[in-house]
Structures are given as structure tokens and as C-alpha cells.
Design goal:
- Strands 3, 5, 6, 9, 10 and 11 form a six-stranded mixed beta sheet that branches. Strands 13, 15, 16, 18, 19 and 20 form a six-stranded mixed beta sheet that branches.
- The protein is extended.
- Helix 1 packs antiparallel against helix 2 and helix 10 packs antiparallel against helix 13.
- It is α+β, with helices and mostly antiparallel strands.
- Strand 15 and strand 16 form a beta hairpin.
Amino acid sequence: MDKQGKQRIETIRGRWITLRIMAIELQSAAVALLGYVLWGIPGIWAGFAYMVIFGAYFLRKLPKTADVTVWLNQQFPELEDSAGIFLKDANAMNLLEQLQTAKISPRLQLLKLPLSFYKSIWNTLLFATIAIILCVIIQIRRGGTITRELSEAPHTMVEKVIPGIQRVAITITPPAYTGMPTRSQVSYHITAEDSAAVHWEIHTHAVPNNISLLFSDSTVLRMIPDSSGTTWQATKCITHTGFYQVKMDSVLSGFYQLQLIPDQPPLIKVTSPAPNTTIDFGRMPLVNIHAQLSDDYGLKFATIIATIASGSGEAVKFREQQFAFDQGLSIKPKQLNATRALNLAGLGMKPGDELYFHIAVTDTRQQQTLSDVYIVTLPDTTALFSLDGMVNAVNIKPEYFRSQRQIILETEALIHDKDSLGITRFNSKSNELGTDQKLLRLRYGKFLGEESESNVGDPRVEDHDHDHGDHEHHTDSPAFGDAAKILDEFTDKHDNAEDATFFDPEIKKQLKATLTEMWKAELQLRLYKPQEALPYEYKALRLLKDLQQKSRAFVPKTGTKTTPLKPEKRLTGEQDKISPAVMKQIKDYNDPDAVLRVAIAVLDGHVSPEQLTTGNNAIVLRQSLAKLTSAASREPGKYLAAMAALQRIVQGQSKNADPAIAQQGLWKLLTPAVIPQPAQQQPSQLKEFYFRNIKKTANP
């Protein structure tokens, strides 16, 4: 018998058995994980049963050495179906078998196992991957995490369970208005919707006297046993965030989080119209309302509440109406793009009336959100033609107001007489009105410091003229004999024409808008479209009417004389001249985080565990524990681990990692200090000049 050949065959057999055992273990773990996600703790027993059944089946049919030789003969033709002769005794071999053994023995030693030999382990890895993906999908659909063991963060609290408790089953029933299904879990940490009903079912090994739940708001919930005394149940409606403990007889469990998912009120985002909208004369009296409505659980009602104001002064009247959106809310959607068109004429609005509206949205929990108030105005053309307010101490060219009104009157007359004038006469009068509008625009352009009568208020040609001027400035060949160009090169010009006026930026902005409307009106008149020019003319008149109510402020250019500084007193730190009352306020200043800072220093590792529970250290830690407890009631997920660690330190039962965990929680409680930020404003030339000369003085 060839010992090396048989040893090689036994090595292949051992590897075969090892791969099969690994495959069974991985398959069992995948089944256990899938069962744990679906059914909780009983799923682990499913994986264990899988391992026992298939393990027993495999061990009953372990591959024998002869099976390995048969497999080798099938996979490797170079062995010439002679792998079995390595199992015979050398003395029992004939001459032909000895020669064949010597021939194929080197081939057997150099054999490389094919990939099909590892097929079982590859299939098992694929099965485990599919099981993990299924677990992730199931947990995402449930809205939870995968498993507590897989998703637990490094600083998450470990659930400390009372030894006498066998298992727990918690059922969370969200409120009906949420539309969320009932879910179950085996973890003590609870994350539930606001006003959800939580049902605890605790199974014990023995029969305790009583089991109760102790909550952070000092309430105690006693659990009710069944007839056997080993199953205890209790139900509570969760209305606020906090933490709780399980108490069995006199034994307390660890702290468990009680997170509350608040129900947010509906959100309203109005995209149109603008907060203040004016519908000028000649425009369609139509308001298109577009709003984006959303809620975390569903929208129930959405209405537009509109108030129409008519008249003025003591004769003003108000009418209120409600309108529904075009889109219905029968299915209670979580998001809705709501639209509604309001015809102001159909609402009975006349020129001079105003519409105030806001949107009211109610969710499935009857929480209501109101949007801002939006104003839509129909200007009164009669009031625009009124001469009231013309006499004013500060008037901006009031003699030209009548000209704009005259242009409007002539435009309306031209529209009225269109059929009787004929096309030629109509176009001629429209062009003449455009000329009058241009002259009026040029006169108002002087208020902005314009010194040229070309392109005043024309937004289309300003950039073109600028580019053209820039091109001429860079022309290489100067115009010979052009005196104006020669003067431009050697004389000073105005910095900005607008800066030469006395008007403030707001008045300048409105004047520019007025010139723009005049230019648009002129354009339509030149195109023989007086009907389309009329809205721009009315808007220009309304802007001018508003300008006459604005006053002009004059700021005297006088210097400010400050108290001279004494260089010998600067940066000396002397406080004898400070008022005693101010010094008393400084001394009486109380840092609210002083206790927390001292506690962090005590936990810094320079004090032994025995010294933490005695003297002033114990007092400081107890005061800090009270603050941590209050914070854990508000945000258990953030402070509960630190509170539990600090409580163990105060009770003298601390672990090695407790001081570091408690310090992290205390650091989070500290009020964040104000960090100095660099100045955002641009450095002035005076500052640069000052610092440049300081450097020269320091480094002569």
C-alpha cells in the first residue's frame, strides 16, 4: 500500500467533512436569523432544530474513503480509474497493480481540487445572503431596526433583565388616526406613536408575588397575573417621552427607553400668489392659488378662508367666504398639491376692494395649521385720478401727474372711437400717444440724474449701449478731430448719475419701476395696441400716486466728537474706578453649569472609586445625577445610558466604562460656549492703513 497516496485521500476526505459541517452551521444560522425576525425568540429554536436534523442525517452518512476514491476517478481521468488501489495492502498487490501505483502516485499528489468540490459552501453563502436581505426588507417594511444584536450601537444601553424573567412580549397599538398596523417586539426599549397603547406580557420561571412597572414620571403600573401566576400583563397609553423599570418583588431591572414619536401639525407652503398682489386695470380679475400641503399621517380638511373688504373709512364692509380646493381629501393623503382659481368678479368685487385670504388645514388628529394672510387688491381707477394729496411739502414734479392721467384718458377715448376713425387715423393717433408717453418718460428720467434723452427707462438697450461704448473705448484708431473724445480722456466725469440726486434708494427703485411701465406702455402704443398699453399706463399712474405720499429725509453731515482715550490707562486691568454695583453683579454671577463642570473633573480618572462616594465628590455627583435624570426624561435615547452609569457610580457599583459614559452625558448637558467668529464685513481702507503703519512701526 502506498502510504503517501492513502494519506492524500484521507486529507481530501477530512476537507470534505469540514466543508459539509460548515455549510450546515451557516444554513442553521440563516434559518435562525430569519425565524428570529419573523417570530422572535422561537425562531432561534427553528435554527437549532435545523442544525440537529441535518447534522444527524450527515453524520449518519459520513463519506467513506471508498466514496472519495470513486469521486476522484470520476473527476480526474489522469488517475485511470485506479485511485482505489491505494487502499490495498502492498503485499496483496500483483505486479501490474504495483506498476500502476508507481505511475499514478505522483499525479495524485499534484492534484488540484476543482471549484465544484466547494459547491456546498458557495451555495450556503448564497442562501445566507438571501436570508439577510429578506430580514432587512422585512424590518424596513415594519419600520423598525433589524435585530437588537445586529443594530446595537457601541454606546447603546444593554438591556439588564431580571434573572427570574423568562421572556417578554410587547405589543404596540398606534392610534386609529395614524393608520399604522399593530406591531410586536421582544425588546424592552419602546418607540411608539403619541397616544399609542402599549401592552406588556412578561413570562417568569417561578411565581413572584408582584410585578410592576416604574415610570420616570413617578407613576407605577401594577401588572396582573393569569391563573398560573407565571404570565403577567399590563397596558398603558404612552403620552410623553421618558424611561421605565421593571420591578419583580424587590428586584429592579435596568433602565429602558420610552421614546415617543410626536404627531407633527400639517405643513402649508403657498407657491402662488405673492403675499401682496395687485391686479391692474385691464388684467383678468383671477387669482390662482397653488399650495403644497403635507402631514405625517394624513390630511383631513383643507379650506380657503377669504374675507372681502369693500368701501373705505367708516363705511367699510367685510364679507367672509370659504372655498374648497379642486382636489378632494377623501383618501386622507399625506401630501397634496392643492389648487383653486378665484374669480374676483364672480365674488362681487369692484375696483377699490381688497381680498384677504388664508389656508386652514386639519390633519386626522384634528390638529389645525393656518397659513399667512395673503392680500389681493383691485385698484380704484377713480381714486388714481383724484387730486387729493397733490399739495405736499415735498412733491416730486407734481405738474407731470396730470399728463399721465391725460394719456390714460386719451387712450381710452381712442379705444372707444376705434371703429369710427379708420385704420390709418387710428394708427396715427396711437403713435402720437406713444410720442407723448416718451416725452413724459424722458422728463421723469431727469429725476434719476439722466443727462441724455436716449434710452431712458429702456431696459433692452442699456446693455447694448454699454457694450458699444466699451467697444469704442478699446478701438485702436482714435477719431481724428473729435474734440468730445479728446475731452473724455482728460476731463473728470460724474461717478454715477443716480448718486447726484437727493432721493433715497427706495424712491429711486420706485422711479425706475415707473419708467419701466411707461416704456412698456409706449411700446404697445407704437405697435398700435392701445388696449394692451392701458394696464401699463394705469400701473405707472398708481406708482406715481404712491410716490407723492413719500417724504424725503435729510441727514446733516456733521462729525461725531468722542471722548479722547488715555493710552496710559489702556490694558492695565485696574478696576478701582468701576461702580461697586457693577462689581457686585460680577461677583454674584452664577454659572448654571458649574456643578456639571466639577462633576466632569471629578470623573476624570484622578479619583479612586471609593472617593467618588464620599465627601464633596458624592454631593456633586448626586446633584449632577438629578440634572441627568431630568434630561433623560426628555431625551432618553441621548442621556439614559449616562444616567444609568452615573447612578451606578453614586451607588458604589460602578464598572470600568461608567466614568467615561457619564462624562459624555455631562458634556452634552453643558451650555455650548460662544466661539469667536471672524468678522464678515469687508476690511476698510482705514483699517488696512492702520495695521500697515503699525507693522512699519514695529519693524523699522
